[in-house]
Amino acid sequence: MNSQGLDENPPLFRIRDLTKIYRSGEVEVQALRGVDLELYRGEFIVLLGPSGSGKSTLLNILGGLDMPTSGQVSFRDVDLGELDERGRTLYRRDTIGYVFQSYNLISGLTARENVALATEIVANPLSPETALGLVGLADRMDHFPSQLSGGEQQRVSVARAIAKRPAILLCDEPTGALDSNTGIVVLEVIQDVSRKLDTTTVLITHNVAIADLADRVVSFANGKISEVRNNERKRSARELSW
Amino acid sequence: MNALDRKLLRDLWRLRGQVIAIILVTAAGVAAFIMAMATVDSIEVTRTAYYERYRFAEVFSALRRGPETLVPRIAGIPGVQQVSTGIAHNVILDIEGMEEPVNGLLVSAPEKGPESLNNIHIRSGRLIRPGSSDEVVVSEPFARANQLLPGASLYANLKGQKRKLHVVGVALSPEYIFFAVPGTLSPDDRRFGVMWMDRKALSNAFDLDGAFNNLALTLQPNASESEVIGRLDRMLVDYGGVGAYGRADHISHATLNGEITQLRASIHIAAPVFLGVIAFLLHMLMMRHIETEREHIGILKAFGYGDSQVAWHYAKFVILIVAVGVMIGMGGGVKLGRTVTETYAEHYHFPFLEYGLRSSVFFEAIAAYGMAGLIGAWGSMRRAARLEPAVAMRAPPPPVYRRTWIEGLGIVLLLDQSTRMILRHIIRWPMRSALTIFGIAAAIAILISPFGITGSVDKMIDTHFFQAERQDLTMSFAQERHSSAIYDLVLAPGVLRIEGFRAVLASVGFGGKSRRITVLGRQADGVLTRALDRRQRPIPLPDRGVTLSSSMAQWLGVSAGDYVSLEFLQGRRMSRQVPVTAITDSYIGLSFFTLFMDRGILNALMMEGDVISGVHLKIDPLQQQSLYAKIKEIPSITGVISHGASLATMRRLLQETLKLTFVNGMFAVIIIFGVIYNNARISFTERSNDFATMLLIGYGRRDVYFIVLGELTLLTLAAMPLGCLGGYAFAWMLTEGTANEVFRTPLHIESRAFGIAMLFALLSVLISSITVLMKVNKMDIVEVLKTRE
Ligand SMILES: Nc1ncnc2c1ncn2[C@@H]1O[C@H](COP(=O)(O)OP(=O)(O)OP(=O)(O)O)[C@@H](O)[C@H]1O
Ligand SMILES: [Mg+2]
Question: Which of B226, B250, B274 is the last residue of a domain?
Fold first, then answer.
């Protein structure tokens, strides 16, 4: 699917004049200063921008981890800002899959168990074994995080995120801690799986090369969107190098 | 099992050191509780069954001589169910191989049949053959102490006639579970024994044909004890009745009751302390655990686990610890309870033992420790529930360290980096450091208190034997004699000093309350026995009025200057109003029942001449043997107390209580260790990152040791004075809280107790440090920096 077909689709996310202010003590940090954006079903979005420009903040709000200060974010016509705690929990449980830069696996659980942790609370998930198979770790399922390399850990984390067949996959610098070869493997997995499962994917990166994977590239600067660009030639992860 | 529960088990395993420490403390607390409850309950249940089966009476009275014809009249008193009469007489015994004279109470054997009260239980041998004039059944404690098995014989001085008696049986009786010679502190089974003899033989020996001098009765349900006692007393006046009393004033029953109350009170004081320590330990462990699990919590929430699910996950952690601890504790408590109960049953000479642990005790333990667990887990559950996922996902900001105020004092130049790290860490978490200090202090306090208690008993013994009652021997006469009787004894071998006393049974009353007591008249110039004030200074014998013990004063509600009424139950049965001239500070149970005054004044109040009921002696130990030989020949002496022997008995008793103290001490050691070990581990985990970094940039492991040990030692040192204060307060609570009208121990803690407690604290620091130092040694820098925990 590409951007030409999107017009018939209603947007999945509708973001209107979104701001976010962090207050810690005396200091006020304006992380987002009025963001407007629409995301469509099946899109692969890459967020680019300098450090501190508000990318993670937006992602966290989309994921129901954080609340906006003002403005609106609606998902399928549900205003995320209106959801109560229980509603947000269910939203996260049923809709969102996360991949973080620092993997965030639970060290006391094996790869399989880390994935099971996410699947046990949702209806109709992939089995942990299938999910780990999709990321190419079928033979490492019973290893603990400390027995896996960084790239392998990140693939477990991707398996954990997609095992619940989420409508939305949010990845915050998934390759930030990896070398280029390993990073490419992880990106391949993400791209592959999100295509297979028809998920909408938002991926943050500092790496301009990775932007080539996207349907649309959204650039951030200073808490605002500075540019939205439709990617003319979408590439597959295999073709990347940096 | 789902993944989250599996994580739970692995977390428990990873933190096993601390988990086991807390489980042990929990188990110790529960075991102590169950053990004590089992003991008290069993003693009570057994006592009740014992009383029922052997028909222990409810009202008792001694009199000079009551004709059998009186019995129907007594039985006619409204409320009386059953009357049983008998003969009881104090005698001096002569046992072969025993140099000193021995005190015996000869009691007529209860008649056979369903009518009889205060029945005896034959342990070995047989009952007395009716009509036999020289057979006796002896009480088991006495028999054991003197090896008086059936077949043995001994001599008794029956009204001047030395009679050989044959032991045919050994028995127990609910009436004499505890029996001490009046005036002594504790039962001395070697020198005081109860013996049952044929009633006919006794009435012949003591001129009580067709009469009795001892009476026991039971009451109908709903009868008023005091009314029956009142009527009975009036009826017995003409027969030399010295006042009837209920079970509450029955020495054996009251002593047993006092011990039961004391045990119960100490449970109620000790249990909350244990609970507090456990809540504290769990709180510390869980708060730290949550801190290391921040990101996990974030992940769980990001993936759609709800707040309550996450909180429940951590609650289960605590529940498992507490549940395992409670289970071990219950098992151990039941076992220990059985052993301790058996020791007590042995001590009380119960003929049988009913293990009476109520099942509700288990529920109480579960509820109390569940509650403590909840309190301990509460903070961390709340934090886990409240942690925002976005915040949790971000690594915790590096702790904000400040320059400590100590550095502000300008000694900064004297401190090296490591010392600074210690100080900053302590001050960075003031609440936690304070809690740790508090926890260690509590443990020290708990360890001090049992030593404090034994110190107190020691002090009591010292006061009684070396300050208040300084005579070597106390002898009582069968009947009052003129004070010139002293001169008969002055010439006896080895007598250095002799002082006569008068003891009269009376009822003391004030403001509607009254109580049966003994008025003790002392020789005006006497130096052997003295009353002491609060500071252990002797109070001179007042030249008018009475002195009474502070506990009796409290019970009656009198203070010095008030007038109390005295109704003498002997002699002309005079009623008098006398002023209270001083209040003495005596701790000893029996002195509760004793009022002191000048002998001359006492005799004058009674309108009698200068008579005495006994003498106190100071003797020359070298001539003790010949003195004893002589005493055995004097028919008018019915009781002899050797204070040296009583002292030895008291000390032996103290040794026994030390055993229990040891058990309590062990529990306290577990607590101390649990608290210190936990703190050491938490503090280490918290900074393993810092330590790894230190090693990385070239510090040695030695520098890390210094920090670990230094912080722990500093906190422990800070806790010590606090712990000593707390120990003092706790011991005070134990002595005051368990004091009742009859039993009271002074608070006295030897400095040794403080030393021992602090030594154990330091020892725990040492052991905990070693385990942590082993961790430091095994610390893999890469691993630590990678997993960031
Ligand atoms: N909890 C918080 N409290 C205060 N300020 C915050 C908080 N979270 C984020 N910020 C601030 O908000 C701004 C935007 O942060 P955000 O994490 O969204 O940046 P980013 O674009 O993801 O940067 P990076 O590429 O470095 O991850 C930053 O200035 C950051 O310091
Ligand atoms: Mg970011």
Answer: B250
